């Protein structure tokens, strides 16, 4: 009898020990990153993957994610999707099926992101999209997908009102218009221009590999526009600015390129850039950055020995959003609950980008977040933040809901 | 004896593949296997023109894209059932192949390779810029899937099609047409000099290979549920060429092995992301220099040597 | 309108000069060795990257860096011939083509590892622009066009006037006869690859100075280079010169007057049309 009690007590003690040790032992939450780590998209994807890793280290150092009485330390697996749709699908399948990952971050580029978005709705997982700007990613109302970067035409609308105010009547566009979101940006600008009786008189195209824009510019020059609008990746856009000057075009130049000073000065002289406007999301810009932004820039530079790309905080913010949502929903396993909690979230205090809440929440019903847009001008060798662009997140959110 | 052995080997391979969905617990590998089987179809088509006829065509992925887009768009606009659109895809692709094959096959060797490359580039540029029809670079999402997207069922569909088309390729290769194709590879002028219109046979091989690619494209579209022009670029055409070379060109088993290699090899090399391109290129160069007959060729040589040895033992 | 046509022609000349140099390298290798050297574009861009590196990281003047890069290009050409193409010289021509594809991937990968994915521009400090009537020409473009003309002339002189050049021509025309005449056939492929790669490097430097070098740019140029070959006639020198100039101007005119989105399609369609009418190319010998 005694023996039995003793055994039972011992068993209970052992069990108690086991549970407490399980409690004390940190659990591990593995999150996945699918992003372009090599190839042309790596300019955006690699800094995003770095940003997620940095956020994970910070969260782990501060004690991890707390769910009930458990504490989770974050483990990051990053796979290269080369910004290619097939590769991205394979990478995400690997994360979900083989690695058992439920939360997938990153996603810098539109093609690969759209491919994953097309099936993520059927998966027991949550997808957080970063820099990919294609509008249709958040028009499908996929409940387990959200995006931190606003669609390009949200910015385009703000840019359109800015250009319309400046009063030029005939605007010529040159850009990477074969890319969906650049074309959407221009469409938005055009809508705003029409309201004040201005118009777009030309839409010339360049591709990602084009560096000689003189044929397109010569054509535009013959049309005598009042201003030009340049939309596209900085690598190509820089050549437009330079060659426009070389062709003797002295007219106001607007753009949507998000290129850094360094990227432009590799191609142009500062004089050739003088006066150019860049109308874009404020993103990570030291002139307009919050306290978080300045700290982010410093930490990233120290950790990776390079400046963070302006768009990389979109991915950094994803992890803080995820942390807040997991803690709010009290579960790491129920992805539907976490996805729901993300949409109910107020803007977490640790985020770097300057989001504009819709109805007090970070994400709208479409799962879309909005950041402030700004007008930057090239003055004496650098970009100067001139003013915030008037942008109406609420109205755009309503418009986005009407699309599918 | 040899034929029975070959037949048994094929049967064993088919049986193993057929059991795969039961054997595989991690669905990621099933996903890759489906892609690989789609690539088997692609590579068998490529082998007809490249391996048997000796013409390197670099428009494979472009034709795959035409198949993928035609099946998708026919379903979207004419509301045809997915079954029907998949069956129509190779027909539409054949029309394009006729139109492009006629001018390009008038020329030989490298001319042909480069002209087909240009066709692939043109196909992609049109897919990107003809937005009204293709939705451009943004691509088309939510392409209908068969059986509610069941991967197991789709695996069997693709497996059966791949097996059937491999058989068909073998039949073509063994027929008189196949012999003439081989003769064209060896010496085209000679074929012409004995009064055979070589161009007809070349065009046949080109169009059939395009139909294989078109079907592979349609199967891809309804498997992934998303397509955009980037998927059908020149890089993927090169993958098809690679599959044939690595596996063994001018053989029937070669494209099967090569297709699994081009799908699984990059996945295995995922650990070496930044060196993947260099490594992949290096494997290609080394394989061509040291193993120009492909894996199947090497295996055959090995088997011959071993069985030769065995015979001597027996004697 | 006239000014526009004139301006577009001048716009197209610079890029046409680059095409000519790339195509000359390709056509030499092809005409003499029968190899479609697909890696030529990526190797050329390596030369451009190297010049950039010598100028920006090592502080060398551009005019010192360029000859160094050309010599390195020559040596690189020898290396490529020995380790990659020599082993497959006697095999089916498909094998050499596959080796070329593998080599392209390797060189692209090496470029990426060594020089990163950001585009680079070789700094020249030449930013003056000349204006004549309504037509404008940047100084740098004029130098590029002149340099292309000089290199083409030098290449022609080499082939026509020097002993080695004549040996190369002899091998191209009849290999067996050349052996009988005592030409050292073994060294010919080496010289051919060395010279071609040097020409390619020159083109890479021009691209780097006038435009930019970035991942994937080289592959774009090699495709255009082959288009020039087909346009002008495979293995034909004058064909490469005419074809390159025609392609450059066609692209410029097509983008300016028809459609910038479809300018490459138009260029390729012109190529295919030429092929249909004259299968041997504009200046190729009829088979």
TrEMBL record, chain B:
Which residues are listed as membrane-spanning? 28-45, 52-74, 80-99, 111-130, 153-173, 203-221, 241-265, 277-303
MF (Gene Ontology): branched-chain amino acid transmembrane transporter activity
Per UniProt, subcellular location reads as: Cell membrane
Task: For this UniProt record, give its keywords in alphabetical order, as a comma-separated list.
Answer: Cell membrane, Membrane, Transmembrane, Transmembrane helix
Topology in membrane? Multi-pass membrane protein
Q: Main localisation, per the record?
A: membrane
- InterPro entries cross-referenced by the UniProt entry: ABC_transp_permease, LivM-like
What's one Pfam family here?
Answer: BPD_transp_2
Protein name, entry field: ABC transporter permease
Automatic annotation (TrEMBL), chain C:
Entry's transmembrane regions? 12-39, 59-84, 96-116, 140-159, 190-214, 226-249, 261-277
- InterPro entries associated with the record: ABC_transp_permease (IPR001851), BCAA_transport_permease (IPR052157)
UniProt keyword Ribosomal protein, yes or no: no
> What's the domain of life for this entry?
Bacteria
Could you tell me the keywords of this UniProt record?
Answer: Amino-acid transport, Cell membrane, Membrane, Transmembrane, Transmembrane helix, Transport
Report membrane topology.
Multi-pass membrane protein
Entry's family note? Belongs to the binding-protein-dependent transport system permease family. LivHM subfamily.
A Gene Ontology biological process noted in the UniProt record is:
amino acid transport
User: What GO terms are given for molecular function?
Assistant: transmembrane transporter activity
Subcellular location(s) of the protein: Cell membrane
Q: Has keyword Transmembrane?
A: yes
GO cellular component terms attached to this protein's record:
plasma membrane
Instruction: Return the Pfam families for the record.
Output: BPD_transp_2 (PF02653)
Tell me the protein's name. ABC transporter permease
